[in-house]
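Hi there, hope your week has been kind to you so far. Would you mind checking whether the tokens look sensible for this chain? I owe you a coffee for this, so here goes:
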Amino acid sequence: MKTEWLESLLNPGILKTEGCVPEKSIEEIKAELGLTNVIKISSNENPIGPPPKAIEAAHDCLKELHLYPDPTYHDLRKALGKHLGLHKEEILVGNGGGELIYLIAMAFLGEGQEVIIGDPSYILYEIITKTMRGRCVYSPLKEYGIDLEDMVKRITPLTKLICVCNPNNPTGRSVSRDEFFSFLDSVPPEVFVVSDEAYIDFVKIPNFPDTISRFRSGQNNMLILRTLSKAQGLAGLRFGYLIAHPSIIKAINRFRLPFNVSRAAQMIAIAALKDTEHLRQTINIVNKGKDYLYKMFGEMGLEWIPSDANFILVKMERKAGEIYKALLEKGILVRPAFRLDNHIRITVGTENQNHKLIEALCDVLDISFPPYKV
């Protein structure tokens, strides 16, 4: 069908991006391939599900679904402030981190202005920048990690935002405290740094940047993004939050949509923050899973990238798309890495899921299973 008539009417920025390509649902995959079971380890979801306290809150909130959400999110921002040691006026909540990235771009990015992003990094930075008619400035990774020195060199008078995914998605590498704070010292005050910390709960390195302490010290051009989708297991709820100077929060509140976080999401998020045992269990399972997968990948002769997140990037001898399709036929759903042709990104699953992944991968690569002597 011809669409020339429509393209002339659309926002030109939309024509510059293909958007996110959604993966097929488990139900769709089962129907297409005739499978009875599919293990999804492609979207960096929590391997043990949502927190029990969140599930209880979900049941409790059902009787209030006829009411609109609190438009100021008072109780939720107060709970987050207590959790983080911040004032609620320094916190903005959103329908997942993606919406918050949109809101940041809408607040600061004008046509033709630049956003510096790691290459590769989280794809939404690129999609949103192009949609807003901005210009993406790509900073190549250094040893699979964000190269902050290179980012500084790419700053121009047109630069408005620098997106630092830390740990980086899809590589799992993070930048240290000294690196990041030195970087902040080099960034002009009129350029805003987005520190996207979706995977912060999984970080074990002792010198990871304490961005909140830096924010408290007066780093007003730093915007901190976090989420409850990963370690807290609320990906399906869609909830994230932004930490920024109160004046920035007020500016964004002038145009954000009302009721962008549902009443249920508010109540469930508050409960999830209190479930520290679930968080502890999640981190423990992910750490054990990573150790197991590291060992197996090593025994299989595969190159893997040490990760500070709940996923692992693995380099293959063949194209990632081929490995993805072969694993999918065996009921294992992984993710070909964005702009890394021969790499796949694997979410750390349960012990059983990790075992089945290795069994299937050995079969695809024609390696005996198990790949080590028991």
